[in-house]
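[audit] Reproducing an earlier prediction to check determinism. Same input, same settings, fresh worker. If the tokens differ from the archived copy the diff job will pick it up downstream; this log only records the rerun itself.
[audit] input (277 residues):
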Amino acid sequence: MSVIFIFIDGLGLGPKDDSNPFFASNTPFLTKILEGNYLTREAAEKEFAQVSLLGLDAALGVDGLPQSATGQTTLFTGVNAAKYLGRHLRAFPNRRLRKILFEKGMFRQLDARSLKGTFANSYRPEFFNKLTSGDRRYFSCSTLINYYAGLQFRTLNDLNNGDAVNMDITNHFLRDRGYDVPLVSPQEAGRRLVKISRSFHLTLYEFFASDRAGHSADFAKATEVVNKLDTFLGSVVENIDPGKELVLVTSDHGNLENMNVKVHTINPVPALAIGKD
């Protein structure tokens, strides 16, 4: 069995109201796979024909608003990072969390079991300059687990060759910053992710345009992100072999599901399991 782990930054399970673009927007794939339900709190803790949906405690049993560094460290290592620190830590992991990511990062855990993992995201040229400088204080958790496992980082050449997926799915982010890369439809990006995953036991893909949109409090931007994400997830699921492959979708904290605020939320985060068993 192979696993595609899709990490979506800043996605919680909100209520059925107009502040939640997952309720107020058109999400044909999610609504279909959830058998007429929306991706909201009301649909959690249920098993459907193709998917199970859990609601996870993003606060991890620790008071305060969930944050990225502790939430992502927990997801990528299995260690409750918020309890370990006694607080939530935003943005980039500190020295103590980097130690956990080095020792328990899931790619190193896979390697210890003679299993193969990969990070499907593409990186811009300036990242590789930072990589050679040796200063990793501002590397994300996903970047660090890949680095600590000694795995290859995918380049824009890989992206152009169809062997990587950019963090915004369609490459608009790169095009807007002057990079000569082709635009890719969400459907094609989904097909590419599945193709990449066929050579590995676990493939990680990180989408963080969701957190940016949530912080913007711009409902039109949030709707665009939700629609793109719904189409992308639909393409991934359409192209897997459900008898052999599993898609896991989850997040580190809420944000995008409540456009009335610009900060993270205390809502549970979704864990969607689609496919094998």
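[audit] rerun output stored. Observation attached for the diff report: The chain has a mean pLDDT of 95.
[audit] end
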